[in-house]
From TrEMBL:
Any one cellular-component term (Gene Ontology): extracellular region
GO biological process: adenosine catabolic process; inosine biosynthetic process
EC class: hydrolase
Full protein name: adenosine deaminase
Keyword Signal: yes
Keywords on record: Hydrolase, Metal-binding, Secreted, Signal
Cross-referenced Pfam families: A_deaminase
Family of this protein: Belongs to the metallo-dependent hydrolases superfamily. Adenosine and AMP deaminases family. ADGF subfamily.
Compartments, record wording: Secreted
Predominant localisation class: secreted
Length: 591
């Protein structure tokens, strides 16, 4: 033990060291500067407009003031237990939804030019609230049918039953879903489980409770809607599991399909989907329809429209929209139309996969400018892995090469916490096969951080990640955006884009058509290191990694640059004064 004199001397010495610790502070400054220099959005920052630091300052001031604003989030650390009106900024998406609607930061995210939307399932751009009015409309009044997987004769069955909508000829034999003797078997050729949707709506009891009752929908529609969309109750309830969330979601997509897949609405949908993207400041999209179902019905249910008919409708409606926009002098808002990524389920046997691959090539030959990729869909924790089909996929790539056509793979890969390709063996991870099969981009890539070698290889092969953060939360990969690995994936140097995946099913009960705006909002509140240079970089990558031609990409980037300039001016004009008057804490220097 040292004597008191020695202790005194040591303490005096340490105070002297602290006073002369400039060196430490300098080292620390250098360390931070080095990290900032190599930050993932350095490219966008290097080309920032002179006005961008100002935009950055406004956005940060607003974000940080909204974090502590008691009417929005109220995230002030305190010993007092906060009241039930507080929410975490970057907490659960659906719980925060009503706050986001009030947020200035969200309004800025809505106004921001987004570039391209590269990962969105075809049916889910629009919410069910916009589709139900069509399903009760005159053209399908006699033909829109419904079946349930249980008789709706007890309260319990209302909760348990799955629902499917479909347009069928008007002479379809009608059943009564509400009768105790209702037979739901859809596979038995001697049974017709279908009930006319208009009868179903009339017979629907008035005392069935729904979690959400969006304006304009009747009881039956609210009930059916809840079988389709992800709600707070079905995703956040404390006994929900990962598989449970996926099962609900899959039931939802099966139910939802019937609302979009008939001739008049399919046609109407294309234009409306484009309108919604334009409002969301998206300039181009690559949509993913599930094309294993080969046809959709005409409104009277008597004709079948095959894949060629469907693709023709898409081309016609895109052209109509282009013509209308050109007339308004607004073609730059959606200059390249749409492209289609052929999707088929990962659950099918090999011979079926072979015929799907053949169908994809046929469709590409018929619609060379429309078909731009091939993907496998469905939960990755269920069979099959991509590797299971490797021979067929290698053969497909070789066939495309000899036909001189390009159909790059854009597989869902790494959208999993198990990362075992639907097996018990981590060696079956889809992330290996996505690399070896030369994917142009992958859907999600959530699990990629587990593979440092793959990270390097993905970068080398310039494989872009289509991140879908809200989808990942709602399907139980993470608890909220702050737990999502996007900051680490970006910091690892991977090129990423932001995507809404299934916005029509993820939006909650609000009549608004934003989809990508929510994703951009989420990353800004999900990581304190996100900046508007980061926003811009993500949008620019979405153009660079799209399937547009080199000339279109160049044009797209030019349009984006002009839109970005206007955006920065708009932010200052609209929120500059407001932000200057905020008395928020000292802001971090992120520029
Ligand atoms: O995030 C996803 N991962 C994998 N499959 C998906 C995802 N979202 C939708 N689907 C699947 O795509 C088909 C058409 O929508 C549906 O089968 C749905 O389950």
């Amino acid at each position: 033990m040292s004597n008191p004199e020695e202790t005194k001397e040591l303490l005096a010495e340490s105070i002297r060291t602290a006073q002369s610790s400039h060196e430490y502070r300098q080292d620390r400054g250098k360390l931070l500067a080095a990290e900032k220099e190599g930050v993932w959005y350095a490219g966008a920052r290097a080309q920032a407009l002179p006005s961008e630091p100002r935009t950055q300052e406004i956005v940060l001031r607003i974000r940080e003031s909204e974090r502590i604003d008691p009417t929005l989030y109220g995230n002030l650390p305190s010993e007092a237990v906060p009241d039930s009106s507080t929410r975490d900024m970057g907490g659960r998406f659906l719980a925060n939804k009503s706050r986001i609607a009030e947020s200035r930061l969200f309004k800025i995210a809505q106004r921001m030019p987004k570039g391209c939307h590269l990962h969105i399932h075809f049916n889910s751009e629009l919410p069910p609230e916009e589709l139900f009015p069509h399903a009760r409309g005159s053209t399908v009044l006699q033909t829109m049918h419904v079946r349930t997987t249980k008789p709706l004769s007890s309260r319990e069955n209302f909760a348990l039953a799955e629902v499917v909508l479909s347009v069928l000829p008007k002479d379809t034999k009608n059943s009564d879903c509400f009768a105790p003797e209702y037979n739901p078997d859809a596979k038995d050729p001697n049974n017709s489980p279908w009930m006319l949707w208009s009868d179903f709506r009339k017979s629907f009891p008035s005392d069935v409770d729904c979690e959400e009752t969006p304006e304009g929908l009747d009881k039956a529609e609210c009930w059916a809607r809840e079988k389709m969309v992800v709600t707070r109750r079905n995703t956040y309830n404390d006994v929900q599991t990962h598989n449970g969330a996926w099962a609900c979601f899959n039931q939802g997509t099966r139910a939802f399909k019937g609302l979009v897949n008939y001739e008049s609405v399919y046609r109407w949908y294309i234009g409306k989907a484009i309108d919604s993207m334009v409002r969301d400041r998206v300039m181009y999209a690559e949509l993913r329809p599930m094309l294993m179902d080969k046809s959709i019905p005409s409104d009277d249910g008597t004709r079948k429209l095959d894949l060629k008919d469907q693709m023709t409708i898409i081309c016609e409606e895109v052209q109509k929209k282009r013509d209308a926009m050109e007339k308004q002098g607004e073609l730059d808002r959606f200059p390249f139309g749409l492209k289609i990524i052929y999707c088929t389920p990962r659950s099918i046997p090999k011979p079926k996969m072979q015929s799907e691959l053949n169908d994809c090539i046929q469709l590409k030959l018929q619609f060379p400018d429309l078909i731009c990729g091939f993907d496998l869909v469905g939960a990755e924790d269920r069979p099959n892995s991509i590797g299971f089909y490797a021979d067929l996929l290698v053969g497909f790539a070789a066939t495309c090469k000899s036909l001189k056509i390009s159909i790059p793979f854009m597989f869902h890969a790494g959208e999993s916490l198990l990362d075992t390709g639907g097996s018990f063996n981590p060696d079956n991870s889809n992330l290996y096969d996505a690399l070896l099969l030369n994917c142009k981009r992958i859907g999600h890539g959530y699990a990629l951080l587990k593979h440092p070698l793959l990270i390097e290889r993905y970068k080398k092969q310039d494989i872009c990640l289509e991140l879908c953060p809200i989808s990942n939360e709602l399907l139980h990969l993470c608890g909220n955006i702050r737990e999502h690995p996007f900051p680490a994936l970006l910091a690892a140097g991977l090129h990423c884009t932001l995507n809404a995946d299934n916005p029509g099913l993820y939006r909650g009960a609000t009549h608004d058509s934003s989809s990508l705006s929510y994703e951009f909002y989420q990353v800004m509140v999900g990581d304190t290191r996100m900046t508007i240079h980061g926003w811009k970089q993500l949008a620019q990558w979405s153009i660079e990694h799209s399937c547009l031609s080199a000339a279109d990409k160049e044009r797209g980037l030019k349009i984006f640059q002009k839109d970005w300039e206007e955006f920065c001016v708009w932010v200052d004009d609209t929120y500059g004064g407001y932000a200057d008057n905020l008395t928020s804490p000292a802001l971090p220097n992120l520029s």
